[in-house]
């Protein structure tokens, strides 16, 4: 059931799901209010639930963990509030969840270290795209390609062909705090991770280096401290990274993927240094390529002074030689001058 991009208002009917046959419920981009209907727990076949960009006011739907096949849950841009951790601070109970988007709400609280341990970690899925089939009505059946709104590599986009191997988490634009759970490193198939615009503290987890499939990472505008893990420099698929406006320090890990990022991806961290920032880690702003030029200028100055010295020395020697000749011939010149004077007197 896809009812997206209409002008529906009011609340979602509680009698919407009376059987286990519903696979997809997409009511995004409407003006719906109220709470999520608790009758959704009867939809045991539900694989996608999307309520993006409505006005729903509710707490996080922990009760949806009863759905064994839920793969896509997108609650972006609503008025959800409260913690997203289970009441007893255990792991999140969605074993098949691949796309989890709760951005731009009012969620609060912290995440326990084992928050992600029950997630599916394999990237081996059947088929190329997320296509759901229904064979109930004829031999051919009906296929439906899901539409997911993703915030990916710094851009918001509507994705109509979603790879079955795609795995994304977007918690951005909330009020989450505390440390980022190390258990996030268990999500081997994770491609996009966005934790920006929250109040996370502590270090960037070293386990990020285990996310070998990661293509987009955004932890900007938090209160993270410490250094950037060197392991991020070895993530060969990482095309986009943003750690700006935190309290990070130390050298930026060097690697082909990180050196190709813009300076804006690291700005707002007074203690960071190294490329692509202009601030070097050695207290000098002079590029190494300019040093040979300065040496050449010094050599030219030395040669110029040598030439002056040689010219001056040569002139002195010539002058001395002429003076010596004058002195050596002085008696002869004096005799001639005296003879001339005598002739005039006569």
Automatic annotation (TrEMBL):
This protein's name: Receptor-like protein 12
Lineage, broadest ranks: Eukaryota, Viridiplantae, Streptophyta, Embryophyta, Tracheophyta
Compartment(s): Cell membrane
InterPro entries tied to this protein: Leu-rich_rpt, LRR_dom_sf
Swiss-Prot/TrEMBL keywords: Cell membrane, Glycoprotein, Leucine-rich repeat, Membrane, Receptor, Repeat, Transmembrane, Transmembrane helix
Cited PANTHER family: RECEPTOR LIKE PROTEIN 23-RELATED, RECEPTOR-LIKE PROTEIN 12 ISOFORM X1
Keyword Protein transport: no
Family statement drawn from the similarity comment of this UniProt entry: Belongs to the RLP family.
Keyword Transmembrane recorded: yes
Membrane topology field: Single-pass type I membrane protein
Gene name of the record: LOC109133077
């Amino acid at each position: 059931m896809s009812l997206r991009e209409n002008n529906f208002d009011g609340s979602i009917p509680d009698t919407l799901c009376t059987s286990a046959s519903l696979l997809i419920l997409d009511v995004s981009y409407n003006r719906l209010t109220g709470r999520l209907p608790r009758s959704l727990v009867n939809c045991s076949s539900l694989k996608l639930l999307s309520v993006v960009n409505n006005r729903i006011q509710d707490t996080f739907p922990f009760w949806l963990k009863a759905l064994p096949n839920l793969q896509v849950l997108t609650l972006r841009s609503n008025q959800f509030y409260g913690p997203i951790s289970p009441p007893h601070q255990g792991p999140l109970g969605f074993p098949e969840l691949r796309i989890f988007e709760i951005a731009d709400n009012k969620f609060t609280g912290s995440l326990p270290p084992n928050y992600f341990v029950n997630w599916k970690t394999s990237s081996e899925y059947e088929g190329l795209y997320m296509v759901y089939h229904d064979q109930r009505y004829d031999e051919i059946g009906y296929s439906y390609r899901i539409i997911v709104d993703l915030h990916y590599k710094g851009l918001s986009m509507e994705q109509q062909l979603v790879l079955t191997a795609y795995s994304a988490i977007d918690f951005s634009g909330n009020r989450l705090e505390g440390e980022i759970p190390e258990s996030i490193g268990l999500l081997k198939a994770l491609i996009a991770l966005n934790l920006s615009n929250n109040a996370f503290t502590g270090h960037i987890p070293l386990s990020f280096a285990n996310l070998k499939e990661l293509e987009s990472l955004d932890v900007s505008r938090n209160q993270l401290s410490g250094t950037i893990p060197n392991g991020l420099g070895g993530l060969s698929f990482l095309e986009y990274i943003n750690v700006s406006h935190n309290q990070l320090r130390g050298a930026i890990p060097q690697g082909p993927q990180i050196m190709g990022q813009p300076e804006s991806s690291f700005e707002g961290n007074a203690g960071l240094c190294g490329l692509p920032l202009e601030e070097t880690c050695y207290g000098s702003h002079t590029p190494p390529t300019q040093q040979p030029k300065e040496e050449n200028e010094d050599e030219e100055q030395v040669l110029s002074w040598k030439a002056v010295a040689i010219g001056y020395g040569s002139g002195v020697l010539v002058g001395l030689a002429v003076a010596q000749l004058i002195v050596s011939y002085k008696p002869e010149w004096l005799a001639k001058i005296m003879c001339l004077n005598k002739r005039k007197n006569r």
